[in-house]
Amino acid sequence: MSGAWTPITQPYPVKAGMEAADAKDALRRAIRAQRSNRSARLRAHAAEAFADVIASIPEVRDASCVATYAARSFEPGTGPLLERLASRGARVLLPVLGSGLARDWAEYTGPEDLRERAPGRPPEPGGPTLGTDAIKLADVVVVPALAVDSRGVRLGQGGGWYDRVLTGLRPGSRVIAVVFPEEVYDAATRPLPVQTHDILVDAVATTVDWRQLP
Ligand SMILES: Nc1nc2c(c(=O)[nH]1)N(C=O)[C@@H](CNc1ccc(C(=O)N[C@@H](CCC(=O)O)C(=O)O)cc1)CN2
Ligand SMILES: Nc1ncnc2c1ncn2[C@@H]1O[C@H](COP(=O)(O)OP(=O)(O)OP(=O)(O)O)[C@@H](O)[C@H]1O
After folding, report:
1. 14, 48, 54, 138: which sits with the fewest CB atoms below 10 Å from its CB?
2. Could you tell me the residue ranges of all domains in the chain?
């Protein structure tokens, strides 16, 4: 074997007796390091595959309003998904961070409207914000994650933004987490750390397929 090919593995730096918060931090570091190895070409290719898989999920296909996210560079890309949803006439809501990372939403109107307001922050739409409760308009919520396990436990970026948002959904709205294939963990052997505030997701989508959880 030759060249700069980096094998894809599933990091699991969780040790017996570790506090959940420390185990989450160790996992976040390992998964972010792994994500940073993916080239721009592979990320663009993956974004198309994510769009194919996510758009095929019945709840997404049938939704009038989808709340999702505008990806940062190394997150599972959503550009093609956003365009596909908008072109079939679905309303698409994206997170807007208020002061102190307050939870707000605004409508996606096209790629040219998405701007990174500060380095490292997710791109945001520029239109009017709709308020925290706009999440109740969503028929389905497509959330970013660093990892998901077979019970539906989700590891996010660590701000607790989505754990707070997901307490306010309309009953019956489904939550789908998006991760790269190696970021789906089998809870029987590699459970993700879980804390009482963590909200389980209903399904996970990768570049390859999706499945209902648990
Ligand atoms: N694409 C995307 N949007 C999302 C999330 C996410 O995980 N991904 N969130 C999930 O919760 C919420 C907010 N997430 C945030 C993520 C980072 C920072 C942040 O403070 N970034 C640092 C820079 C960090 C870096 O350089 O990597 C900063 O602004 O100083 C804020 C909010 C809502 N929108
Ligand atoms: N419903 C909530 N109410 C108050 N605080 C919360 C709530 N959910 C999470 N938090 C706080 O947010 C912090 C981060 O939580 P956690 O590590 O679970 O984030 P995450 O789910 O990985 O991140 P994110 O949701 O932003 O992607 C924790 O300190 C937690 O106490």
Report:
1. 48
2. 20-212
Model confidence over 79-128: pLDDT tens digits?
999 999 999 999 999 999 988 778 999 999 999 999 998 888 999 999 99
Nearest CA to ligand 2 atom 17: 158
- CATH H-level, domain 20-212: superfamily: NagB/RpiA/CoA transferase-like (3.40.50.10420)
Q: What is the ipTM of this complex?
A: 0.93
> Whole-angstrom Cα distance, residue 52 to residue 35?
21
209, 123, 199: which is closest to 166 by C-alpha? Answer: 199
Distance (Å, rounded) from C-alpha 44 to C-alpha 76? Answer: 9
For residue 120, the ligand closest to its alpha carbon is: 1
Mutate to test the pocket of ligand 1, among 121, 124, 154 (most ligand atoms within 8 A of CB): 121
